[in-house]
Protein 1
Amino acid sequence: MRIEEVQSTSKKERVATHTHIKGLGLDANGTAIGMSAGFVGQAEAREACGLVVDMIRQKKMAGRALLLAGPPATGKTALALGISQELGSKVPFCPMVGSEVYSSEVKKTEVLMENFRRAIGLRIKENKEVYEGEVTELSPEESESSTGGYGKNISHVVIGLKTVKGTKQLKLDPTIYDALIKEKVAVGDVIYIEANSGAVKRVGRCDAFATEYDLEAEEYVPIPKGEVHKKKEIVQDVTLHDLDAANAQPQGGQDILSLMGQMMKPRKTEITEKLRQEINKVVNRYIDEGIAELVPGVLFIDEVHMLDIECFSYLNRALESSLSPIVILATNRGICTVRGTDMTSPHGIPVDLLDRLVIVRTQIYGPIEMIQVPISCLIMCFNFPM
Ligand SMILES: Nc1ncnc2c1ncn2[C@@H]1O[C@H](COP(=O)(O)OP(=O)(O)OP(=O)(O)O)[C@@H](O)[C@H]1O
Ligand SMILES: [Mg+2]
């Protein structure tokens, strides 16, 4: 089981129609400010969402679900994005659309399960022995090739690290040199090297090199305090799905057959139930030992009337499990049939699930808001001072 080097698989969101939404626009008491954070009007729904955000922050919403219901274009999707922005970037937020579950290759419940796990975060805190500092010297030492060819080998690397307190020169293994090249480390960067795994992380460029340009791609960091060799608390935010994906990659060899196998097999079907159970076990152990902390996030299912009866029964069960995120549903349907049955039901959601939901209604806009919404879009998109 790998917990290090987990890459984030979170979906990149670029929903341009909602770029003006920067939060819910509430004041300290939780009352809606007329035109703020990109929102206009819809005060009651915003305040209700504010209460939900408070409950999520106090971890009192776990295992419950919220339904945003109202006529089309009254800002349900916008409210859900507002909630995610209020929660901050550390709380995982996984948006999906009801129709995403229909695929000819992957089971509906599998898609739901994946998204559930994308919405459950894990904060791993580890005390690691590291060498940290600003790189003052980076010189690879070459030697004759050991395999007898004409090429040269790197026998070791000498690296100088500087902190406020002192400097140190380290002689490192050639594999760490590869890691240094991969991270594009150069003299003047602040880096840390983990002592037992040899993993290299580039923190940024030392602020002594900061220039006066207004716009730059570099991130400047201060030169580290303390000794070069020290214990450092490293915090990693991952989701359960990141762990699944990192551990599910095929471990086959480099031959043609396994390459073919990798190409033929869609990566999505590789995460098995067994693997998930293994990961849950390790995660539970980590939580018991106090190394990791669970951060239940938010799963947002838009157009929820598109789900069918199988998905709803799965949702019912998933909401009850101990590892469950907060689920936000949104729909613009009134009374309609539940997909996969001939029952009619409010919002196209079976009544048993409906009973467990907190429902927030959005109101249709009056002429004044109709004029103000596009103005608010313009103001926020062009960042005019308000
Ligand atoms: N109160 C508001 N303040 C500012 N912008 C808003 C507000 N309500 C809606 N908008 C904007 O109006 C547009 C339509 O809203 P949105 O897509 O959220 O509606 P919806 O309720 O999800 O509709 P549908 O039911 O069709 O999915 C979006 O660009 C949204 O950002
Ligand atoms: Mg919508």
Protein 2
Amino acid sequence: MSHNPQRLCAIDELPEGESKGFDLDGDGQDELFVVHREGVLYAYRNSCPHQPGAPMAWRRHAYLNKEASLIVCFAHGAQFDIESGLCIDGPCQGASLTAVPLSQDRDGNVYLTE
Ligand code: FES
């Protein structure tokens, strides 16, 4: 059986300093989100470690603080390091988001690698 990685988006759809959610199964809730920071894409499950399964954005695609320097869960304000997914402040300090591995081809297409 051949395994084709699922294409998420083109890198152009994800400007530097922005986040974007993806509703892969079309149930109306994003399962994961991607952050573009300093040329690198980071993807995490949209599930806050404070209350596993709790979605984190305050509106669609809004996963970051105003300065776009941290990921924020808008339920109770947990703040996460973008690069590591570690909660650095808030009710689940020390816990981590679940990273989702991505890959990118030369044409700028972004894929899920799992
Ligand atoms: S559910 Fe995310 S901080 Fe409480």
Protein 3
Amino acid sequence: MQRKNLGTVLTMIACLIFGNLSFAAPTTETVHATLTSPPFVPEATHRDHAVKVIVELEVRELEKEISEGVSYTFWTFGGTVPGSFIRVRQGDTVEFHLKNHPDNKMPHNIDLHGVTGPGGGAASSFTAPGHESQFTFKALNAGIYVYHCATAPVGMHVANGMYGLLLVEPPEGLPAVDHEYYVMQGDFYTVGKYREHGHQDFDMQKAIDERPTYVLFNGSEGALVGDHALKAKVGETVRLFVGNGGPNLVSSFHVIGEIFDKVRYEGGVHEQENVQTTLIPAGGAAIVQFHLDVPGSYVMVDHSIFRAFNKGALAILKAEGPEDKNIYSGKEVDSVYLGDKAASAAPVEEARAAQATGKLTIQQQIKAGEARFAGTCSVCHQNNGAGLAGVFPPLAGSDYLMADRLRSINIVLNGLSGQVTVNGNTYNSVMPPMSQLNDDELANILTYVRNSWGNKGDSVNAADVKQVRESTKRPQGAAH
Ligand SMILES: [Cu+2]
């Protein structure tokens, strides 16, 4: 506030001195930009005049979790993926400082799409580890802009998470809303399969072939679910700044159960209304806005839907408040849409940590299995394992399940069809293969199933699953 008043006074003095009421008068006012980590957005500038803004951004190469039990070395602007959010006002002169932390291994630079000038700053910002570069640009155009690293191999730097957003506010600012959040999609390429545990390296060939292992919002499968879900209340308006870092994929951004009241598509100044899904190009961004009328979990996805359910492109906004049965009669969004995000990931993490030290107990497996059963098997066999008469056989008290441990692994890995008799009742249907589950997940789920609802069995371990998986013949080109 103080700063604003001072700025206004300075501008007035400048106008008096130069006898000119335009904002083009030279300004001596300098502010340091406050950057935020995702999913947060800096406060509005609340300025009615241009100033000089100093931005300091540090590149860090950091090992972080990309999925539960999977680590990856991200290259980041400011320590996060996406990088720190930068907010300035149209007309501001930005003095940009790019620092490359001394522990880093690689040189980096920055190309800001909000910069007018060849390379968008890239040539002037090439920075070796332990060094700093500085360049200045004028934010001529209002809009929401992607920034990214452009050091060779450019694709690799972007694929490792080197992108973020720069908002250049229009002179009048953006209309007030209750919440502003920062969400950015990216595609990732690891040598190991989706959710394969341990440290995973970047896979250049998969990146060239555009076959991502993960498609994520905010750089990690867990970034915006569970305790980290975005929050709002019924009656409030939410604005999302949604970027797409790529490097390869175009995003079909959609919020299940919401209609965007307004979209500044392609990050420009025009507004489209009542939009279901908005296309966000790689290296592009949009501003979407919606009003929350009823409570519940709203699932954000890339509507290229396998990416949401099998590569991680899923985030949640949780709205709390009173129901309005006139607008929506129904139940809370169910496990079909939340998938295995319906349950907490904590027991899964605990089981993995215990296994790493060779101390995994059957109780830990059961808990982890329960968390993954929800949204994976429960859609058909039901949460209580009772199945549906004549359609899905029961797992609770199932003689068929308990008769043969290895066969049960085989059923989950490879599916089941043809006639089966469970507890004297016959079923003739099809269960799809669940081979997307990794060895630990599958072992834990089966341990849970074989020790719940009256079933009493021994534990199923990951080594058994691995063995069954390896001994199964699959058509050429089929996964896992
Ligand atoms: Cu870089």
